[in-house]
Write a structure and sequence with these properties.
The complex is a heterodimer.
Chain A: H1 2-10, H2 17-34, H3 39-53, H4 59-70, H5 76-118, H6 123-173, H7 178-201, H8 206-214
Chain B: H1 12-29, H2 34-48, H3 54-66, H4 71-107, H5 118-168, H6 173-187
Helix pairs in contact in B: 1-2, 1-4, 2-4, 2-5, 3-4, 3-6, 5-6
Classes of the chains: A mainly alpha, B mainly alpha.
């Protein structure tokens, strides 16, 4: 991957080059280490670094970038790091921003779990591990409820219910792989929304149709 | 979607391929950032490849919530390392962030036009109920195995206590998890 991306960044060598990489590194390491609770909670911290502190972009650009990043799957924080890093310093900038953002917490994770598991046979550690599972159960249940509440807000109680029951049947009763279920739902949503636009607009908006094909 | 080799020990190259594939699939399908990828990672890591038990996955999730930083990369880095060493961790991280990072960069010139498209809105919405069901099933599994392990008194104390602390008193999840570790160390070390 690095080899393929290298030539793109070679054009942006300058006197302030190292300084910019260092800023990217510090800015994204800081957001990676201080942001608790996963991607979405880190967004305000990234905005602080990118807009207020280092002025890599203005608030409007940041909003646009966030909206764009949300249209793609995958972790949100690393998509932001990729785009902002690329904007500041090309492909190498993107790489620096992502690595600075994820590396400290990934290594800390290995150290912490390694430490816990090296006392795997101790009754105290066994008790600790047991004590945490109800909390994880509650956190997942709350998260599930939040996703339901979100979709109730955007698609209404009736459709949320229909989609959730359908998803449950496909996942738990027919035991389809979640990837296939999500693929089905995504293509269904794409076809229905395209049909809706076509029906509403007729063939009057060629730009929109072109966009649909690119999607 | 199905790849051959349920949990069986393949050649080293196959294992690296499986690591990459597992995290690639989970993150590609996880619309809506980190939390929505949790049940998808669990499906690949526990159900499909059998790299860890549901219980170990729970420990992993707990520790990932104690530490700062993006949740998907912490999970990916650790599982990749456990299964395939440093190279495994690198591959899992690449699979987690690579595709979406490259897509963002490629799209950035013209994708601003997409963000209000009805297709994108509907596609994002259609996935939310699926994620909700996956998360609910996982929550049920964790609570059930906790019940079998510690009985209903500890389960209700820990479950209701942590719900009250996180959702009513708005105490940070990391603090609640650390508190539950202490509770378990003191009161559950006999099981």
């Amino acid at each position: 991957m690095t080899a393929a991306l290298w030539p793109l960044a070679a054009s942006s060598k300058g006197g302030l080059s190292m300084r910019a990489y260092l800023d990217l590194c510090i800015g994204f390491a800081r957001t990676g280490v201080t942001g608790y609770g996963g991607g979405p909670s880190i967004i305000p911290l990234i905005e602080y670094e990118a807009v207020k502190k280092y002025k890599w972009m203005n608030a409007d650009e940041f909003g646009d970038t966030l909206a764009l990043a949300n249209t793609l799957p995958g972790p949100i924080a690393t998509k932001m790091a990729a785009y902002i890093g690329f904007k500041v310093k090309g492909s190498i900038g993107a790489l620096v921003a992502i690595v600075a953002h994820i590396l400290p917490s990934s290594i800390a994770m290995m150290v912490l779990l390694g430490f816990l598991y090296s006392f795997r046979n101790s009754p105290v550690v066994k008790g600790m591990v047991a004590g945490v599972s109800p909390v994880i159960g509650v956190m997942l249940a709350v998260l599930a409820f939040q996703f339901l509440a979100k979709s109730r807000k955007t698609m209404g109680t009736k459709w949320m219910g229909v989609f959730a029951v359908l998803a449950f049947l496909l996942l738990q009763i027919i035991s389809l792989h979640p990837g296939i279920v999500i693929g089905l739902f995504l293509s269904g949503a794409f076809i229905l929304s395209t049909y809706k636009i076509k029906k509403a607009d007729g063939w009057k908006r060629p730009v929109m149709q072109k966009r649909e094909r690119q999607l | 979607m199905e790849t051959p080799g349920h949990a069986e020990k393949g050649t080293a190259a196959m294992i690296y391929l499986h690591i990459f594939w597992a995290f690639f699939v989970a993150n590609l399908l996880g619309y809506g950032g980190g939390p929505s990828t949790i049940p998808l990672i669990q499906n690949e890591v526990v159900q499909h490849y059998g790299w860890m038990t549901n219980k170990e996955f729970g420990d992993l999730l707990a520790m990932a919530n104690v530490l700062p930083g993006p949740i998907a990369t912490k999970m990916g880095g650790y599982v990749g390392y456990e299964v395939g060493g440093v190279l495994g961790a690198v591959l899992a991280l690449l699979a987690t962030i690579g595709p979406s990072a490259i897509a963002v960069i490629l799209l950035f010139t013209f994708a601003n036009r997409f963000k209000d498209a009805l297709q994108i809105q509907w596609m994002t919405r259609s996935v939310q109920p699926v994620i909700a069901v996956l998360l609910a099933v996982l929550a049920y599994q964790f609570l059930l195995s906790a019940f079998e392990e510690m009985g209903w008194i500890h389960l209700i104390l820990l479950g209701a206590g942590s719900y009250f602390a996180m959702e009513r008193m708005k105490i940070h999840p990391a603090i609640v998890i650390v508190a539950s570790l202490f509770y378990g160390g003191f009161f559950l070390s006999h099981i």
